[in-house]
UniProtKB/TrEMBL annotation:
Residues 46-189 form the RanBD1 domain. It comes from the Eukaryota. Transmembrane segments: none annotated. Residues 192-201 have a biased composition (Basic and acidic residues). PROSITE patterns: RANBD1. InterPro entries: PH-like_dom_sf, Ran_bind_dom, RanBP1-like, RanBP1_RanBD. GO terms for biological process: nucleocytoplasmic transport. Pfam families: Ran_BP1. Signal peptide: none annotated. It comes from Octactis speculum. This is RanBD1 domain-containing protein. GO terms for cellular component: cytoplasm; nuclear pore. SUPFAM superfamilies: PH domain-like.
Length: 233
């Protein structure tokens, strides 16, 4: 077996290439060691913020109420659009999608309908469960109900509105109507009980009757209200 010996010039060339490769790898190794040192020397101390923020209890007004019924649905309002304002033209306008709730107050036992938009949480229905409300099934649909009520969702004044609730299926619609009818009955019973508990007005003995006045009470009422007539603008 013959072994071919390399000439001195070839050995020198190989040695030179080996040194260059070592120099090329050196910066990468140095950077790796530097990163390792930085990780090891990372500060892990705990710093207390200068300003301490107190926790604030967020209330949505439903904490004192029990949920009697809840189901996701779509709400419509029968009214004028912004473009038809004042024209008298009314149509069904979608008001939002969310959970319609029947809530019962834990102390007063009063019940109300409440619905919020599921994205903005804005109140779109806030109405007392009035025993006089009649739920009517929408024409051509077994999963929608129409009713009229005094709504307070604006938070400023009661507004008489006509609403329609549309559920995902007929079963959910029937469950809502059944729960609402039960709530109506409970509210009617609550109001009748409250009327019976009111104390009767004390009658004034004939000898202590207030002296009659010559003033006309109707005229006084009109004068107190002011001019109710309307004039052309």
């Amino acid at each position: 077996m013959r072994v071919k010996l390399r000439e001195p010039s070839q050995l020198a060339e190989l040695e030179r290439h080996g040194k260059m490769a070592a120099l090329a790898e050196a910066p990468e190794t140095a950077n790796t060691e530097k990163v390792s040192e930085e990780v090891e020397s990372e500060v892990t101390g705990t710093f207390t913020p200068v300003v301490q923020l107190e926790e604030v209890d967020v209330s949505n007004g439903e904490e004192s109420e029990d949920i009697v019924f809840v189901k996701r649905s779509k709400l419509y309002r029968f009214g004028e659009t912004m473009l038809d304002k004042g024209s008298g033209k009314k149509q069904w306008i979608e008001r939002g999608i969310g959970e319609i709730k029947i809530l019962k107050h834990k102390e007063s036992q009063q019940q109300r309908l409440l619905m919020r938009q599921e994205k903005t949480m804005k109140i779109i229905v806030n109405a007392l469960v009035d025993p006089r409300i009649v739920m009517t099934q929408n024409v051509g649909s077994d999963r929608a109900w129409v009713w009229s009520c005094f709504d307070y969702s604006g938070g400023e004044e009661l507004i008489e509105e006509v609403f329609s609730l549309k559920f995902a299926n007929a079963d959910d619609a029937q469950k809502f109507n059944a729960a609402f009818e039960i709530s109506k009955g409970q509210m009617a019973e609550l109001h009748s009980t409250g009327d019976e508990e009111k104390a009767p007005e004390e009658s004034v003995p004939e000898s202590e009757e207030a002296p009659k006045s010559d003033a006309d009470p109707v005229a006084d009422l009109v004068n107190g209200v002011g001019d109710l007539s309307t004039a052309d603008q």
